[in-house]
Records
---
Amino acid sequence: MIGLRPIEKKMLRGLNVMKSSERVTPAMVVRIGIASIFMVAIIGCTFGPTIAQTDKRVEMAFVDDNEILRMLSSEDRETSFEAAREIFNRGEKMIPLLAKNKGNHAPYAWGSLGNPRSGSITLAPSNNPEWDEGRIITVEAASIYLICAIYRQDFEFATSAYLKSKDDEVIFNRYNTTERLAEAWDSVEKWIEMMNSEGLTSLREKNIRPLFNTKFYF
């Protein structure tokens, strides 16, 4: 009964109460049948989604690095999110590839990154590029976030993928402006040079983060 919940163990014990000498009655057959149906339903609900998610991750594991990077720009919400998770899981080797997304202003289809329990509000794209500028999470902003997540070894290390600072006076979530992203990339590119020179582990030990040369954080 390893891995079963108490109610599942109880049902299995219930199916085991008959001794070989007991006479099987129609009522007992009905009882056993109902218990079996509930058992299948409970186990199916408990393990079904986990198996499906595992299958999805197995599929992603066979996709090469460049294709995973391309999938981050997918217009399909689920594909873009699964790509982000897979990029994070692959770790350090994906950082130089993520840097190739500099200037990619396409919306990140999943729409947000960060801790889903934070209550942070991320604005969805509209049909007005002027209004969207700086307010939506783009593929390049998502890429900077993922570089920081790999450094931090935590996919949900922040409340969102908005670049923030302590002296912000931001209106309508215009956190990721072209100017802010340019400053962030300038720091990230210097940081990648340091990573290539001394290694990611060394930078973690020295507490040198990708946005070290800016006032920004996620």
---
Amino acid sequence: MNNSKYYFLILFLEFLWLSVSAQSDSLNTENSEDSIVYLIEHPVIINKSVTHEEEVYKNWFLELNGTAFFHINSYCTCDNLITYKTEMKKSNHSRLGNGIGFNIMNISNRRRLVYSIGTSYTAFRENFKQQENDSSLVVSFKNKYSYIDLNIGVGYWILRKRKHVSIIINSKLIGSKLLLNSGSTIDYKDVYKIITNDDANRDAKFVLSGVLGIKIIALNDRRLKIFAEPFTRANFTSVLDYAKHYYQRRWASGVAFGLIFTL
């Protein structure tokens, strides 16, 4: 009987030891699992639209300009008017001419071609000196020939994207309507006879001319720009009536200057 008690006591102790061992292993396992942290991150998708902005330039411009220039006259006459041609060269001397006007300019974004149309007032001035017939008296007049001009042009804009300075090389075709021809001249029938331009009645009412210029633009990136433009202007047709058997052309060189507004 006593042996049975010891036997059961041993079994109970052994069972208790196994239970404690099993619980200890379980706790260790849980602690081990608890020490491992698993981080699961979901991918973050950012939708960002990328746009390519093309640099856009203004297409329309308003130009206000003034001009200052000198001119020379060229003459071509028939043989019996050689004396008249000689006296005209001696009598007429250029003075400073001037003009004022405006132009509308247009340019394409993808090109550098500039198209323009405009109008202006232009005045040619001359000093006229001639000795009167059968007299030693030298008569002097200030002649003035003023026109209203209508022009169309085309040019090429260089360095347009530059910040400070750009250049436009341009050419224009100009039609001019005579407004005033004050002063005096000599009679082609009698080169020592002085008559008024009105009495001579030989100035052409319409003249066709051409202009070449190089426009230098400052403050190129501003809405308001300034410019200076050396230019040369020449007549395609005579400033005098062809019916008078001779013609006269003017060749002018000077500078235009002014403002360009971006519209």
---
Amino acid sequence: MLLAAAVLAAGCGAAAQQPPHRAAAPVRQLESARTAAPPPGFRTHLVTAAGVSIALPIGWQVLAQRDASGFGVLQILTKLDRSFTMPVAELSSPDSPLKLFAFDRSFLAGRPTTIQVVQATYRRPGGYNSWAPRMAAALRHAPGLDGAVAVAGVQLPAGLALRGTYRTRSHDTVVAYLVPGPTGLWALLLRTPTPRARRDSGLLARAAASFRAFRPVGGPYGPAPAPPGA
């Protein structure tokens, strides 16, 4: 969550203005008008109350807020890997900007590969040139950075996104996509052992291409859906 915190800080306070409390957001594995067809070997995960969908590799463990707040989940995942403690604890809060946490069940030399989906701001982001320089600067000050950050604009179905890639002093590689949505900027964050970086950055690229953001169902950005028969 350290990189996520840096990205949130780059939002110039917008991310600190959290939306009102709402019911826990379930992950739904389905296809709808708000999702893209997943690439082969991927499954689509939809978090309606957060207003996002993303396809992730089949076989990965995927958690949303309701999953993370389940009895004993934090303790179980902390035993599996201590690095899971902070993101799972953060995810369990209903108002957390972290909306989805996923990890590859096959670790490399005891070190996991993870993907986080974080809402970086809660306001309509405007054009790419209005936010990309600020977010690129935040990436260049990421905790544990070792060397330069490679940044580039990437055209995704969701819009023009910023991609940043760098290595850490703990011998991991981090790839971040900052993607615009109707209610703010979204950060898709991959952290993986550097020997797996080529493979896993390709996985994130396919996940990023599947990412969709929309107005949350029943969230603070619009009226709750009418009850059946209304």
